[in-house]
Protein 1
Amino acid sequence: MKCAGFTLIETMVVIVLLAVCATASAPVFVSWRVRDQVDARTNALLGTLSYARSEAIRRKVRVSVCRIDAARHCLAAGKNCPSGRADWSCGWAVMAERAGMSLLLRAQPALDEIAVASGLTMLTFTPPAGQAIGSLRNFEIAPRAAAPSMRGTGWRRCIRMAAGGRARVSDGACGAVS
């Protein structure tokens, strides 16, 4: 009587081939995940800016987008995130000003793996047209990776805000101050 099955040598060859394939494909999956996080963070900020502008027009009040701390309060200029970073990676919030009070409309949580650099600490939209107040209105989104291969302009996104309050995204660095 003959038994069907695999020998130990055949099984070991298959395991070695699977290990080689997994080792070769791991960097591709890491790169894909990081690029996806950069794109997701870019789209989240772009959506937040669009939402803030539309709320300023709809509510007829000043609406601001600001960096926030863990308690969802706006961080003052020069104050670092709870993580110790001075960028927008600690998250941001949309605040409407009504009768001297700030009302939280929306908040985006922190994501330390992705750097969101800008010279701004707050961006305010004014009614009736939703214009943005401030001069340099750029946001540069990039991975905070240690790998040199992830430091090129292909890994960066730039959000540029026009004076009229409309934002657009472009690939590459935009020269935002970190």
Protein 2
Amino acid sequence: MRTFDLSPFYRSTIGFDRVFNLLDTVAGGEGQAQGYPPYNIERTGENDYRITMAVAGFAEADLNVEARQNTLTVKGEKQVETDAEKTDYLYRGIAARTFERRFQLADHVEVKAANLENGLLHIDLVRDIPDAMKPRSIAIGRTQSSARQIEQAAA
């Protein structure tokens, strides 16, 4: 029997979670692949989401968050140390390598805010469906028939 790893879809899409939960349930997979930098995607409300990325060692000036069409791109590039700032590390466990992470956003998902706090980059998203696309209830009323009844004349 073949197994399908749907974790790449979980990691890179926002707003399609119902479809992937259904596929994951049917396939029975529990992929836990990790990349750099590690991140979480969480639902904070019915139409609100948050991406949290662990970007220890990066300052706000080193990070770039860009939303274009249905793609959210997060880039991190550590600025080069000058000779005066060079440090001779005995062990370097905090990664400071350049990265670029892309997330595919569903239609009508927009980036609301991004902030850096304690080495974690928080990106808040909101799904704002236009009123014209939301389901609406139609009232069922009774209308009077426009057909006239022909009266029979007495003979």
